[in-house]
Write a structure and sequence with these properties.
The protein is mainly beta. It has one domain: Porin. The strands form 3 sheets. An 8-stranded antiparallel barrel has the order 1-2-3-5-6-9-10-13. A 3-stranded antiparallel β-sheet has the order 4-7-8, with no helix packed on it. Strand 7 and strand 8 form a beta hairpin.
Amino acid sequence: MIVLLVSGAIQAQESKVKMDKKSFLTFHAGPSFPLGDFGSTNLMSSTDVIANRDAGFAKTGYNLSLNYGYQLHENYGLTASAFYNNNRLNTAAVEKELDVSGAGLKLDHWQWYGLTVGPMVSYKFNPTLTGDFKVMAGVANANTPKVTLLNETLISEDWSTAVIFQTGLDMRINIGNSAFLFANADYLYMRPNFKVESPLNNNEGTTMVTETVQQKISVLNLSGGVGIRF
């Protein structure tokens, strides 16, 4: 009887500890793949007319994020993500479109950071493996690339704040009572408006022209790492 009571007390305490650990924190790092128009390099048509203003010329970059989750229930909860993305431009494709190959063209990168929050639905496949599906929204501060030719600015950079949508799937694999491994896939989408300046040559000389441009930005972020429950 004493052995059964002690055993029952230990199991109850372990169960309580597991139930008390409703929060988890993960650090994400991995590649970022541009999707759709953001990764397109088809800016000009065969008649040298701008055919796709949304062509972003973005290359595969990287993403970093810190995620927090809180289990309101075993099968649902809330999650938040603080993130940073960096995608360089496809220099060869830009040189080809502008026909300036080898002319000293230098391109900066797309980058943005922000915060999203939203609900998540969790499903425990077995005692070790748990999947989280999340739908989130928030704000991001995005930066356009700076373009220079022979050390002269062709297109200036600009920062813009925009609403961002994020959805994704996490797979958590327990490696202890407080730690787990995870793999993650996130889709992010936003359409920030930028004000960019570029030089215009005319009979009166060179003047700077300011234009408002809206850019579709969509990426697939893959990541993995270690998380903790507390």
